[in-house]
């Protein structure tokens, strides 16, 4: 099985047939199937009725409740994981060992230890297959345009940044048993909601060097936080703020970057178009330069389709996809550092969290008042 250099469609399996698979992944797969880039050959879910209904409606020939059996019998090229984060490590490793590429919904997995285990499976597999994360906001035309202008220095040095994911989730949202728990949801809004804006911020600004975080549980009866804030210093010297909330009735997702020659702003909610970006020049910037900056070209919204199209092209070309390996790990490391700083009341530097650090294996780090009781018992007996 080697799709690299081949014009054949990638034989694709969808694992997990719930809401995100139906609303985002399947439509994207159907579009690329119509273009001859993929072929959806299997679906897997622990609920036999759900997977059968999903497969029948989408005319997928193979439906099963056993992932290992599907991998052995169907041998897909690409496995799309639409399952909860608690099983992402196990399922990613199984797919990689079977020689399949993986595209995994966010959050990628509950800890850096899990992420590194997935990378180890990539390296030991010997097939060239890798796992990548659904970070679709990197792939809209707006982000591509702004990224290029930042990388080429058109805006001058980035100086100040702000990243905001302020959403609203009520008590009914958290009445679902797996929500608000570390082991099943992977974290609170810093991990499960704001991760997309955080990832886009890091993609545009470059590596971070230091985080100082705060977290609180102000409204909801959950294990995780329901709001967090962070101060961040980037490797290029710029400074920024990150705010994540599920307590905000006026919902918005926003990124703002102030550079020497311009301010770049993105304001949207769950996905953007070119019109959601605004570039404000500093005094003295020539009008023709500003006109060029504001020409975003053809409008490609940020979406699962935009990223999937790029992923399929990368797989066929034998390239590393940007959200795989270190390109995905940096975002998870940042979020881990935010939690560690918030729960220890100390700054955390990039590269600091590794094997032996309690935050390497669990985002709550065993912290009093945050870790579940059973996790604190395990920590004490270790």
Automatic annotation (TrEMBL):
Residues 144-265 form the GFO/IDH/MocA-like oxidoreductase domain. Coiled coil: none annotated. Residues 10-124 form the Gfo/Idh/MocA-like oxidoreductase N-terminal domain. InterPro entries: Gfo/Idh/MocA-like_OxRdtase_N, Gfo/Idh/MocA_Oxidoreductase, GFO_IDH_MocA-like_dom, NAD(P)-bd_dom_sf. SUPFAM superfamilies: Glyceraldehyde-3-phosphate dehydrogenase-like, C-terminal domain, NAD(P)-binding Rossmann-fold domains. GO terms for molecular function: nucleotide binding. It comes from the Bacteria. This is Oxidoreductase. It comes from Streptomyces shenzhenensis.
